[in-house]
Specification:
Blueprint (H helix, E strand, L loop, with lengths): L2 H20 L7 H9 L4 H25 L5 H24 L2 H20 L14 H21 L4 H12 L3 H24 L6 H24 L4 H22 L1
Length: 253
């Protein structure tokens, strides 16, 4: 196995492991790993390829949540359909932007995500709200905004979608997580197809990355059961890792 394949499979394994271990957030490492470890030279190809890998991972996790009954199907379908429009618009804007500037903004996003992960999470009580015009408009706005951000940066966007769903619909967090994964998968797929239409997806590299991600995800889920009591510590360590990677991107740019 060549060094480039090992780098791709290993990088995918890291992302999958983090997703399995923490239940989210790990996909934000996909683009930096593709750029600085795998050696993808063009930022847009790294984002397009990473978006495809994020999509496959999200759909795989969505299946397990759907089996457990965590998905609010009507909300998932509506949120995904509206968000895909935002993802197509966001990814079109991302493609048109200079690659260096786009990666710089990606590093700024990483700092924001890292700060959110360091913030202690309080238990949130959600109240189911009536399906009226206000709720529908709130859901539409959140879906379009989350989709646009996901498409622009080529990320899953779960950290935006989960609180957005809870805010708009009042659904419990476990349902918001399960429901969000359909949107994460749909946004990633829409972004990847938009980038692919401009020849900005390396399909073979994506397959290697996804293969590593599946293996890493299984190992991450096994580790999560053993380390469940240290979830807050793991989140903080991961936030520090995000800050380090963001600092490296700032340095390179």
């Amino acid at each position: 196995m060549s060094t480039s394949i090992l780098a791709a499979v290993g990088s995918g394994g890291i992302v999958g492991f983090m997703l399995g271990l923490l239940g989210g957030g790990g996909s934000i490492l996909a683009t930096p790993l593709l750029l600085y470890v795998v050696g993808v030279s063009q930022p847009h190809i790294a984002i397009g390829t990473g978006a495809l890998a994020v999509s496959v991972n999200a759909f795989a996790n969505f299946a397990s949540h759907a089996i457990k009954g965590h998905v609010w199907w009507r909300c998932a379908a509506v949120f995904s359909a509206l968000g895909v429009l935002g993802a197509l618009a966001g990814s079109s804007l991302g493609k048109a932007m200079d690659g260096g500037r786009l990666i710089f903004l990606f590093a700024v996003l990483m700092v924001v995500v890292g700060a959110l992960m360091l913030k202690p999470r309080k238990a949130v009580t959600a109240e189911c709200r009536p399906v009226d015009l206000k709720m529908c408009l709130a859901t539409a706005v959140v879906a379009l905004a989350a989709g646009a951000a996901s498409g622009f940066f080529g990320i899953g966007g779960g950290f935006l979608i989960v609180p957005g769903l809870m805010l708009a619909t009042g659904m419990p967090m476990i349902n918001a997580i399960g429901t969000s994964l359909l949107s994460v998968g749909a946004f990633g797929l829409a972004t990847a197809l938009n980038y692919a239409s401009s020849g900005l997806v390396d399909w073979w590299l994506a397959a290697e990355f996804i293969g590593g991600g599946i293996t890493g995800g299984l190992l991450g889920m096994l580790a999560a059961t053993r380390l469940s009591g240290y979830k807050n510590v793991l989140n903080r360590l991961f936030a520090v890792l995000i800050f380090v990677v963001a600092a490296y991107i700032f340095y390179r740019n």
